[in-house]
Amino acid sequence: MLPRHGGVRLASGRRVRADVVVANTDAAALYGNLLPDRRRLRGIARLGLSSSALLVLAGVEGRTPGLPHHSVLFSGDYEREFADIFDRRVPPQDPTVYVGCSAVDDASQAPSGCENWTLLVNVPARNPARWPMRVDAYRDLVFERLAERGHDLSGRLRFADVFTPADLRDRYGAWGGAIYGAAHHGRLAPFRRPANRGPRRGLYLVGGSTHPGGGLPMVTMGARIVAGLVAHDFPGSTRAIAGPAAGGGR
Question: Is the pLDDT of residue 240 over 70?
């Protein structure tokens, strides 16, 4: 919670005073729950949702010759993939699949003789209960597409844990399960996102749901913007609290 005067109120009820509060929670969660603001929430809703992701964490027996740390296996029809996600709002039947395996560079990241595969595909920010197929069936489809592209893991899987848009929503407060907050449609999209300087003095927003946008480069730029705003607004001040329970603006 954000009390009216400087600081935060923790879940325990304890009040922590601070001149500066930096919120890295989803902006919709901030203005919907922590600091209710219907006007700002409506502005976010007008932008629509960005995409979400299905994440599969797989334990794989054996080592895969030639597997790089990072690789991307592209869809055969990129245009249709994004039409599935944003127009039809269904998981794409031919998804682009990111594959990450840190054991390639650091064998200690997985049991001896095994690999830790992280698979990520873009899906709509929508409750998986409303998908046209069950989550486990879509997970199997992702493995089928991997096999078609030269990575058949049949007989090699120890386990495959799945992380869905609902997990992003419920665990981390991501609006609708969207990874990047509001959608990035149009050249002016970064300027329509929630501002880095908040509606109360000393309140600032950072993260992928705020200006200038999602993705590590943009989030880093946003953090630099906030650092500059704090330095400008509070010259010489050293008292601050940073964490997921606070908020801000541009």
Answer: no
